[in-house]
Amino acid sequence: MNSIIQYFKEIIQGVGSLLKGMRVTNRYFFSPGKIVTQKYPNNRKDLVMFERFKGEVVMPHNESNEHKCTGCGICEINCPNGTIEVISKTIITEDGKKKRVIDKHIYRLGMCTFCALCVKTCPSNALAFSQEFEHAVFNRALLIKTLNKPGSQLMKGVE
Amino acid sequence: MLLNTISNALSTLSEPWWKIFYDFSSLTQAIDEGLRSSLSPFWAVTIEMLIIGVVFLLFYALIGLFLVIAERKVCAFIQNRLGPNRIGPYGLFQTIADLVKLLFKELIPIKNADGFLFNLAPYIVIIVNFMVLAALPYGKGLHAIDFNIGIFYVIAVSSMSVIGVLLAGWSSNSKYSLIGAMRSGAQIVSYELSIGLAIITVVVLAGSMQLSEIVEAQRTGWFIFKGHVPAFLAFIIYIIAGTAETNRGPFDMAEAESELTAGYHTEYSGIKFAFFYLAEYINMFIVAAVAATLFLGGWMPFHVGNWEGFNRIMDFIPPFFWFFGKTFFVIYLIMLFKWTFPRLRIDQLLTLEWKYLLPINLVNVLIMAFLVLMGWHF
Q1: Is the pLDDT of residue A86 over 80?
Q2: B78 and A35 in contact by Cβ < 8 A?
Q3: Would an 8 Å CB–CB cutoff place B312 in contact with chain A?
Q4: 3-state secondary structure labels for all residues of A124-150
């Protein structure tokens, strides 16, 4: 007798849970609320990518063309597939000290896996991800980028 | 000459053209008389059959293409997406573009496949579809063949589509196809019972197997209301078993993408694949149309007993649109199943059929017979 009650109980519970699911999908069908589809090439002008999106590695510069990269090379060591190459040079500062600054910070976009190890481990937060995602080019050489802008300098106070 | 005959027939119609939607028999009779007046009876019948064949071909393609786009749109809205939106207004011509693409694609010959059976399989599936479509009542006077065992014919023929599926799986010489076909066979054979018993429930209530009589019997109320609890249970069981019959929704183990690539049509390409794909959707249409005819009154407008005024208002909507409205309502339900429920395992599927649907169904038929005997239905 118990098992018979159990049998009908299972049926009623099962139908109840199925109806609950169908109510949800039915509600979404008639009032989908926010449509998540981006009509991409049409809304290219006003498309805003979300902040966490990893487009490509960039080196932010401030208004006076200064960056925070000290040329320590930690990003180069941490990069698992040799995407980053830091070419540094030594200069002599005004007070006669020798100092290492970067000459070129080379970033090969074509090899990057966007693992973010360089951005996370940078001791002076010199690197960041931009939200740019239209990377297609016709020539592979264009994917090799120099991140520091020409004539840029190390920001004051960053060692 | 043929066109002349038809246009003459049309011009002899006494009513305005839109009256046709209320009753197609005047149009068909006019065409018949027009043909018979100018041709010998043999040629008249031949040409009538040709016309009906072409109409069904067009109908098949249109319904198939429409259902594919409808399915994509429904699932898109359920998932907060837009669905196809590039070709035509709201992406409505997407499936036509897909069809053109499939027509142009190469038919890849499969090494070691059984060529004859491999090519035969899609045609069996399609022919079965056509045979069922011919027996359905679409509107008043819009009924190609009215057998006196109509609904029996429909189940008998529609269960033959499993042959096409099994042939496709067997002749492809591929493990995925074979497993998919075997699963589909087990599924269709077991769910055939539930469909049959659910239909028997209605046949008991209607007292006839002729589809036109079943529709006529619902003039005073649809069977789902007339037969109250047992009819409603039969409707639910029919929808579940029908979804399983068409290898859709939560019961699509025959073509479980994540396990069997594409099931029995893994090896098919181009237009042969399109045939299977279309046949699947037409099967869904057939299941929905039969459900609409048996439980929701077919082309009969919504009538309540003897409320004359109310019934007359409902009669203003042509029967043709009632039929398609009900059919698409049932199709929407079936689509909702697919996009809500997760796929069942094969043992769960058979448990559902043999432990739950079949016993309930047997008791249900008994209750319905008792109700009819005592005259307790409306």
Answers
A1: yes
A2: no
A3: no
A4: CCCCEEECCCCCCCCCHHHHEEECCCC
A97 pLDDT above the threshold of 90: no
- What local confidence, expressed as pLDDT, does residue A43 receive? 85
The letter for the amino acid at A133 is F
Q: Count of CB contacts below 8 A, A vs B? A: 39
Q: Do A37 and B85 touch (CB under 8 A)?
A: yes
Give the pLDDT score at B3. Answer: 63
Of residues B18 and A42, more confidence is placed in: A42
Q: How far is it, in rounded angstroms, from Cα B163 to Cα A5? A: 40
Measured CA to CA in angstroms, residue B301 lies from A70, B20, B87, B304 at distances of: 81, 16, 36, 10
Residues of chain A found within 8 Å of residue B78, distances taken between Cβ atoms: 25, 28-29, 32
Q: State yes or no: pLDDT of A122 exceeds 80.
A: yes
pLDDT of residue A13: 92
Residues A100, A70 contacting (CB under 8 angstroms): yes
| A window 84-103, beta carbon within 8 A of B | none
Cα B370 to Cα B98, B196, B197, B286: the distances in Å are 52, 19, 15, 30
pLDDT for res B5: 62
Q: What single DSSP character describes residue B317?
A: S
Distance from CA of B365 to the nearest CA of A (A): 18
Q: What is the pLDDT of residue B370?
A: 87
pLDDT band at A28 (very low <50, low <70, confident <90, very high): confident
A98 phi, psi to nearest 5 deg: -85, 140
- Please state whether beta strands A66-67 and A153-154 pair in parallel, antiparallel, or not at all (unpaired): parallel
User: Percent helix, strand, coil in chain A (nearest 5)?
Assistant: 30, 20, 50
Which residues of chain B carry a pLDDT beneath 70? 1-21, 254, 256-258, 378
Burial degree of A21 (CB within 10 A; 0-12, 13-18, 19+): middle
